[in-house]
Specification:
Helix content is 24%, strand content 32%. The protein has 6 helices and 7 strands.
Length: 217
């Protein structure tokens, strides 16, 4: 079945992993199906420790804490129907895409071996390994540097070799701000761009108190 010729092609969300120092793109993992729903929580960073602190009640000490929760679904059934065109899925199912999603959570084998070699020489690495910067892309208006706080995979179907062929991934992510990354870090710059876009959207709302039935406020 063909779609309407003039219909716009749906934009796919996903994750991009960037090298922590250079900002170079290491891996892009698009969602096979965009989330049906998304929960976003914004928690302001106030200063006043107790209610009633009149001097600090309206002060903000930094960007709000913003978190996202959603589910992404993956299904290799269509690819398995044509194994010649999709040899990776035919051989490994969803293991490659799931491994790509999880690659930002673990030090690489090379990093682990480097740490082992240093330990063998009596050296201790004081600074922990820096993970790739994870960028959550939800359309061009939301390109967010994030730290994954929750990642649960429900594998729901398997092929004859027990490779997962259908999976639902539940993701929780906290947006990283300039407080976390600084102003010159690639992620800090991405956050500033996101925050600037939000300010531009807010400026498009031009209502006044009279729209709420108030003559003065």
């Amino acid at each position: 079945m063909t779609g309407f010729p003039g219909a716009a092609r749906a934009v796919r969300g996903g994750f991009v992993l960037l090298a922590p120092v250079t900002g170079r793109s290491l891996r892009t993992v698009p969602f096979q199906f965009n989330p049906d729903s998304l929960t976003r929580t914004v928690q302001p960073q106030g200063i006043g420790p107790e209610p009633g602190d009149r001097l600090e009640a309206q002060r903000l000490k930094g960007p709000a804490h913003e978190t996202y929760k959603f589910e992404a679904e993956f299904d290799a059934a269509d690819q398995l129907a044509d194994p010649e065109a999709h040899p990776v899925e035919a051989e490994s199912g969803l293991f490659p895409v799931l491994a790509a999603l999880e690659s930002g959570f673990h030090p690489s084998v090379g990093q682990l071996l480097d740490e082992d070699r240093m330990a063998a020489f009596g050296l201790i690495e004081v600074t922990p390994v820096e993970a790739p910067l994870t960028v959550l892309v939800l359309g061009s208006n939301r390109v967010l540097p994030v730290r994954i706080t929750e990642f649960t995979v429900a594998e729901e179907a398997f092929d004859s070799s027990l490779n997962p062929i259908r999976a639902k991934v539940s993701v929780g992510a906290r947006v990283l701000t300039t407080d976390d990354l600084g102003f010159r870090h690639k992620g800090g710059l991405l956050y500033l761009q996101h925050h600037l876009a939000r300010e531009r959207f807010a400026a498009q709302v031009t209502r006044t108190p009279s729209d709420l039935g108030l003559t003065s406020l």
